[in-house]
Amino acid sequence: MFVTEEDYRVVIGETALKVISQVSEENRTNAEAEAREEIAGYLRPKYDCEAVFNAEDDDRNRLIVMYTCDIALYHMSASMPQKMGSEIREERYKRAIKWLEGVRAGGIIPDLPLVVDSEGTPTGDTFAYSSQRKLRHNW
């Protein structure tokens, strides 16, 4: 399991986690799987998501762990009656998505393993595309 009970304590209290997950291990497992897939959607073009999510203990990227917790909690809170406590969950979710969009755009470069081919050459989205300004010659 990529995210542990201890990881959640950084972003939410133990009692609140039980309330949000509705004391259901299945709810929490589903929300974590959804969070991993959502994160992978942003990282997959350039980073090796299998290696990212198979990392264990101190080899895991701490920001990915925190944002996985935040996104999973956001999904779990969506099923709460009257959206209890959804403001902080929504705020943290938006912050996670903004960070992931920054990674995808290349403005943020996390310490994550790149996608490589059989020879070890990076194969992911490693090129930046741009062009020069259009020339306008008026004679």
What are the SSEs and their pairings?
Layout: H1 5-8, H2 14-20, H3 25-43, H4 49-54, H5 62-77, H6 86-105
Helix pairs in contact: 3-5, 5-6
Provide mean pLDDT, rounded: 86
Number of strands: 0
The sequence of SSEs as H and E is HHHHHH
Strand content: under 5%
What share of residues is helical?
40-55%
Overall description:
The mean pLDDT is 86. α5 packs across α6. The chain is built from 6 helices and no strands. Helix content is 52%, strand content 0%. It is mostly helical and 139 residues long.
Task: Give structural attributes.
52% helix, mainly alpha, globular, 139 residues, 0% strand
In short:
The protein is mainly α and 139 residues long. 52% of the residues lie in helices and 0% in strands. Helix 3 packs across helix 5 (62-77) and helix 5 packs across helix 6.
